[in-house]
Amino acid sequence: MRHPARLGIALTIALATAGCSTAAGDGSRTDAGPGARASAPAASVTSCGRQVSVAGPPKRAVALDQTSTETLLELGLQDRMAGTANLKTKIPAQYEAAYAKVPVIAPKIATGEQLRAAGPDFVVAGSTDLYTKDRAGTREELASLKVPTFVSAVDCPQRNPAGKTPFELLFSDYENLGKVFGTEQRARKLAADQRAAVAEAGENAAKVPRGDDRPTVVYLYSVFNGMPYVAGKSGLPSEMSRIIGAKNAFDDVNEDWPEVSWEEVAERDPDFIVIGDLSERGRPGDSAAEKRAAMTGHPVVSKLAAVRDNKILEVPGIELDPSVRSVHALGLLAKGMKDLGYAR
Predict the structure, then answer these.
(1) pTM summary value
(2) Of 22, 136, 207, 233, which shows the fewest CB atoms inside 10 Å?
(3) CA-to-CA distance for 232 and 256, rounded, in angstroms?
(4) Distance (Å, rounded) from C-alpha 203 to C-alpha 272?
């Protein structure tokens, strides 16, 4: 089961001032003041197997989900956004002022009519399933209207270069969007800062036992109708586990967030458990407290050492899906591993 939206909660990287671009004397582009935007040259990038070209930096971009919206805000592009949609949680404080400048074209998933009414000259989405006939329209349909479309490389596994990690794919998104919008310096800095954060989290891995001695972890994302949804092999938490020196206990399930049974969780008997707190989403079973209650109230799971000894970490749940804020959750996991005593 693919999770329906790519979301997040907080960033450790502060929102900087809005970036823009100009043509430098050597032909390269640098971030500069508002008057320089129009002079930025044309750009072309590849997005999920499609060549995406613009004659100049877009001036009326629409982001179809919160993940894409916050990436554009992090790049300082709020003044060049004609719309946002599908807000699933509160906008973090560092983005509030910038977000207030962006029209909301749809409170939930945008339809083709809502998108077209915004008059976009560029569309960005965090997942391919937002580009369907019954949603914003297919990429082919939008191309026929001369509207370029971009989708996160993280949600395009069949088109990605072999060996690229989910975090590297995220960073390539920043850099490609920087080329399109002429904010290359800012995009490169964001990617460099987050690479450094990933490297810092990975320093812990060298202090953790290798091979079969690595601690195992179950990521509990949600509890719906009493059933747990956990991180499978294709979700970002598997990569997070590798970075911090742990092993995702459900790495044998090739899905992002599969539904499993509590008995299966008990059979995996993880060394520790990561709870994704989705309190702001507000559905039954979303809060960390409800998830703890579900585990301690279960006749089998409650007997697991990880539950009994409170080897449980809490992170913002929506940061466990790929977004500009996922490095924050990674840092929390690395610290949590140390606090639990797994790092020598």
Answers:
(1) 0.84
(2) 207
(3) 5
(4) 20
Q: Per the structure block, which two tokens stand in for 294?
A: 């579900």
Beta strands in 50-157 (DSSP E): 50-54, 61-63, 81-85, 104-106, 122-125, 149-151
Output the furthest CA–CA distance in the chain (Å, rounded). 69
Q: Rounded distance, CA 264 to CA 5, Å?
A: 26
Beta strand 227-230 pairing with 216-224 = antiparallel
Q: What are phi and psi of 216, to 5 degrees?
A: -95, 150
In this structure, what are the phi and psi dihedrals at residue 193, rounded to the nearest 5 degrees?
A: -60, -40
> Which tens digits make up the pLDDT trace of 191-215?
999 999 999 999 877 777 776 789 9
DSSP 232-262: -TTSHHHHHHHHHT-EETTTTS-SSS-B--H
| Bridge partners of residue 150, in order along the sequence | 124
From-to residues of CATH 3.40.50.1980 in the chain? 21-200, 207-339
The CATH class of the 207-339 domain is: alpha beta
Q: Any idea which fold 21-200 has?
A: Rossmann fold (3.40.50)
pLDDT tens by residue, 229-270: 999 998 899 999 999 999 999 999 999 999 999 999 999 999
Which residue do the tokens 């990561």 mark?
274
Q: 4 vs 143, which has greater pLDDT?
A: 143
Q: Is the model's pLDDT at 336 over the cut of 90?
A: yes
Residue 159 CA to residue 171 CA, distance in Å, equals 16
> Tell me, what's the pLDDT at 40?
63
